[in-house]
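Example record for the data management plan.
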Amino acid sequence: MRCYYSTVASFYVQNFGCRATQADGAAIERQFEDCGLERAGDPAHAEIVVLNTCTVTSAADQDARAAIRRVHRANPQARIVVTGCYAQRSPDELASLPGVTQVIGNSHKHQLAELTVLELESAAATPDLNFSPQISSLLQSNPRSFVPLTALLTENRELRIENSIHVSDIFAHTELLAAPVFDAANDRTRPNLKVQDGCDNRCSFCVIPYVRGQSRSLKLEDVLREVNTLVASGYRELVISGINLGRWGRDFSVASNNLRLATLIRAILDDSTLEKLRISSVEPMDWTDELISLAAHSSRIAKHAHAPMQSGSDAVLRRMHRKYRPWHYREKIEKIHAAMPTAAIGADVMVGFPGETDAEFEETRRVIESLPLTYLHVFTYSARPGTPAAGMPNQVAAPVARERNRVLRELASEKKRAFMRSFVGKSVPAITLRAASCGASADENSSRPVTTEALTDNYLKLRLDGRYESNQWLHVDIRSIEGDALAGIPISQ
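Corresponding structural encoding:
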C-alpha cells in the first residue's frame, strides 16, 4: 500500500543502535519517498522527524530521550515520530515526552509513513493545532489523498491507536523491512543489506526478541534482486547482516527446507557479479564447517569473521542461557583461524553479568588471551526490564564492571596491534572509502597532506597518501602503522 500527494513536505530519519536499526531506517526513508516527501538535510529543517530507537542498554534509552528533547527545542513545530525497539518496549513512556506526536512500534514500522500521514489527516481536523506552512499546504491541497484508517484496520485488526500509539504483538509480526543502508561518510561504498530480522533465542540478558519478534528471513529472490541492483549501481563490496544472521532461511515453511546461510551466500556468488561480500556477525554454532570452507576458499568473500562470545566462563554462559560452552567456542574460532590465517576474527564480550565473580571474569580474560581474536566489542551488562537476568541476585557493582571492561579493552587493543603489525611489509587488498585532508575534511586549498581512507579485505583501517577515487579495490604495500590504522602505498598496476 502506498500514499501519494502533490505538495512536498520534508522528513528526517535519525537512527540509533545496530546495523539492523540502520537498515530499518533506510527502509523508512524509502516509504516516505514513495509517499512523495523529500528528505531534509537535518532535523531542524524537517516537518516530520523520525527517531528510530535502540533499547539494548539503559544508555541507549537515555540517548533516545535526549535526542527527542533536542529536536523539540530546535524545531518545536516538527511532528516527532518515535519508532524502533524502545518504542516497541515502552511506548507510553515515549508518548509522554514533550513534542512526541506518534509512537510506532516495530510491529507497525512497515506502515510508518502511512500511519504518519494518516495522523496528519486526523490532526488537520483539530483547529487549534499549529502546523508548519509546508504541512498546512499539504493538507489543504489534497486532504483526502491519504490511506483511510478503515483500510488499515481491515488489513490488521490488531492495530492499536490510543494517544497516538501504534503497537501490537511483535510475535505476530511477519514483515521484514529491507533496504540497503549506507554510511553517511562513505555513501558510495560498502552498503549494508539486512537479510534477516528477529531472534528465536532467549538469552537471559537480551530484550531484543521481545521488541523484534521471531526470526524471519528475506526471501532469496528478494536478496538477489537487491544485490544485483546495488551491483548495477556500481557498488563493489556489500555487507549482509541480521539480528541473528546465521538463522537465515530456517523460517521458510517449505517441505524439507534445507536453506541455510551458506545457501544464500552461494546464490549471491553464483547469481551476481558482486566483487566482495562481507558477512556480518554470526552466532558461533552457526559457523558451520560448510560456511567456514566457503568463506576460506572464495576470493569474493572478505576474510573476516565475527562470532559473539559474551563470556568465557561456562557458569556464566549457562546463566546467560547461551547455547554453547567455552570449549565449543574455542573449537569454532580455531577452525576459522586455521582455514583463514589472515582473517580478522572479532567477538562481542559482556562483563558484569549478574553473579560474575572475579574467578569467572578471569576465565573470560584467559580465553580471550589464548584465542586468535583480532578485535573485541566489550559491553558492560545493563539490566533490561522484563528479562530474566534483571531479576537475578548478586548484581555486579558498577565500579567493578567498569574495571573489567577496561581490562578487556586493553587486552583487545594489544591483540589488534599485534594483528596489524603482522601485515607490515606485506601486500593486502583494500577498498578506498574517501579522501580527506589530514585531520580534517578534504579541502582543495589546504596545505596539509591529503590522505585517502580505505578498509582492507580483513577489516583493518588503512590510510593512503594522496587522493584516490572511492569504491576502488587496490593492492597495497603496507609500510607502517599510524595510530589506529595501517599506512601503505598502492602497488602499480
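Summary line stored alongside the record: Confidence is low (pLDDT under 50) at residues 127-132, 141-163, 439-443.
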